[in-house]
Design brief:
Blueprint lengths: L2 H20 L4 H17 L4 H13 L4 H13 L3 H8 L5 H13 L3 H14 L4 H16 L8 H15 L3 H17 L5 H28 L3 H14 L4 H23 L8 H14 L5 H34 L2 H11 L22 E2 L10 E2 L21 E5 L3 E5 L6 E6 L3 E10 L2 E10 L2 E8 L3 E3 L5
Antiparallel strand pairs: 1-2, 3-6, 3-9, 4-5, 6-7, 7-8
Length: 465
Amino acid sequence: MSNRPKTLNKRKTKLDAILIQLGSQRPSEVWRGMEQVRQWLKEDSEDKDVYGLLLDAVQKNRDLREQVRNLLVEMMQNGSKSAENAILSLPSSLTDFLADADDAYYGGEYEHAITLYRQVLKLDPENTRAKDHIAKAEIKRITGESSTDLPRAAEQYYRRARSFIAARDVVTAMNLLNAAMESAQAKGMKYPEAEEALNNMQNLLTADEFWQKAKTALNEKRWKDAVELYNKSLLLDPTNELIKKELESLQDLLKAETALKKRGIMKILMPLGQLQNTVDAARIVMNSGNPLLGFIEKQLSQIRFFRTIGIILLLIIVIFPLYSNGSLNKLFTPALTATPLPAITSTSVLDAIPTNTEQRVTQPATATNTQIDTDTPQPTPTETLTPTPTEIILGIGYINKGIASTWNAPNGALIERLTLNHPLTILEKQVVAESTWYRCRWDSNGTPREGWILAEYVTFGNPPP
């Protein structure tokens, strides 16, 4: 029994992580979240926690409503009572309820259609369409008559196919559409909607073939062919967000490659922010082994390396003449002959600094009786990133990578990007979706900022000089 609370906490963490994914503005993240939800419901079609998660996700992101609704309809067709209850609780406007009701009515699901039309009447008591269709649905439910002249089986196959179309399960959807057309043909009828949907599915298959060929062209460094194939795929499947993102990233990488080659050796003067943003965006949707992406990343590393060498050489050019003419000796001589600080015995650096201006230190008996004056003010110790007395922190640290992104919440919106060795005050640690995050505070051009940074970009301690 002692393991049960831990198991519940672990499950809650996973559900929260998927909720964050579903609320993301990145289509790839939303897709991964929906795939995980679908897997959970395959394992347990009555999992109320997962249905609650879907309702919360739609509440936060209304663009998800259609995907969630299609998934709930699919679960209802598999006999899930929890899905039936969830679809009634799905956040909806009058237009949403009316569209869902019509969908159920023309799909031959008269019980469900009547329930939804009644929801419409609660919001709009004078809605004539809802009143008319409730009456027709009641008659058709009793007589077993179809909403069209098509056989009931054909409509049911078509209805199920639409759910798989929404889930982009092309093969299953095509099989169900063929079954719908065959059921209609058995009665000597045609099913134009099913035929049109089947043609669309064939377009999706062709689009997928072009997509795969585009990826092959990328690996073979045939950039022009890859762009052409991506455009062909997008023409057949214009709603595919992943294809759009990959094409945009490829075009941005090609522009960056052209700019780098055109600049030649002068590329070390190029601003790196835009190049880094291009690489970060491409890394999300494209294979990390993509040669074009690898080329741009290598160029970025070389530019940073040459800039570091340039700074070192500049420092040598400035310091060496000072050392040659003895200027450095003059600068450091006072420091070498200055009175040494008294030994620090307190655990606090501030307490170790003498506050009594009358205090004198006497040399040992073997020395002369000359007294050394300690009235000279000592340097004040630096108190970098010190918290307020009421604030609990984990410690101080710094950015250990060339560029690190900061977010207003784990997997949330981007705040800004910090560079190598930027000092941080580390306030809190949190694990989200098996990734460790630190809530940090830092200074940005004189303005204090606060946000979340992945733990792999943070090192505890003072930044190196």
